[in-house]
Design a protein that fits this description.
A 7-stranded mixed beta sheet has the order 3-2-1-4-5-9-8. A two-stranded antiparallel sheet has the order 6-7. It has one domain: 3-Layer(aba) Sandwich (Rossmann fold), CATH 3.40.50.150. By secondary structure, it is α/β, with parallel strands linked by helices. The protein is 27% helix and 25% strand. It starts with 6 loop residues before the first helix and ends in a 12-residue tail after the last strand. Bound molecules: S-adenosylmethionine.
Amino acid sequence: MNEPSAYEQLASEYYAQGCNRTCQAFRQGSEVIVRELVNISEYTSVVEVGAGRSFAAPLMEEAGKPLSDLLISDISSGMLEWSQEWSNKGAKLTVCPADTLPLRKRSVSLIISLLGDPYNTPSFWEEVNRVLIPGGHILFTVPAYEWTQAFREGNEAVFTMKDESQVAVPSTVLDFEAQCKLVGNAGLTLRQQRNFTKGELENNLSQKFAQLSDDDPIVNGYLFRKPSRVISLWTRR
Ligand SMILES: C[S@@+](CC[C@H](N)C(=O)[O-])C[C@H]1O[C@@H](n2cnc3c(N)ncnc32)[C@H](O)[C@@H]1O
């Protein structure tokens, strides 16, 4: 049996009022990036990976899209609980790892992965390439590389809980070139990149951003595309 994700320990506090101000700021940045880089009305089948509290669902509702076109997934049942309300409105919810999606190949037109650093691995990107239709997109955000360099050691993020205990979770944040190389190795190409900076935050309550200037990025966002199939036409002379 697989070990439970360390996110199960964080789940009850992750979105609770007054908790995790840094995560709230990352989430705000991710949402701005999604709205700028993706027009959800253009997509017919959408999957949100590592969703926690779904952002794709309210976005689709706002755009008047049927929620039956949406699959909300997460490895942690506790984190997915934050999206439960959307199942009553037609969205499908499933607990599964990001690199083993219960989907046919070439069946999805858009994947949304906000703060996807816990599963930013070759096997995840290969899975993205498997399930996307040719011409499909993935919107992917991570805490900014520059910020993580100052705050973290190794591929781990540490959360402090209300009772002051600490929980470590996996986190792979790469610089721009390394991220594009990882995704490129799985066959996808970069369409757009957008950094969200500290100066764009509505409220800046996190002490962890105190050392940053307003121009420093706190979230890196990427829109990658699976190329359409190339049909080569050979003409005979
Ligand atoms: C940093 S949180 C972000 C949650 C949400 N996307 C947001 O922006 O608020 C990362 C999420 O990824 C999930 N997760 C962690 N490892 C995963 C994996 N291997 N496969 C799928 N989901 C995973 C966690 O349970 C958690 O909900």
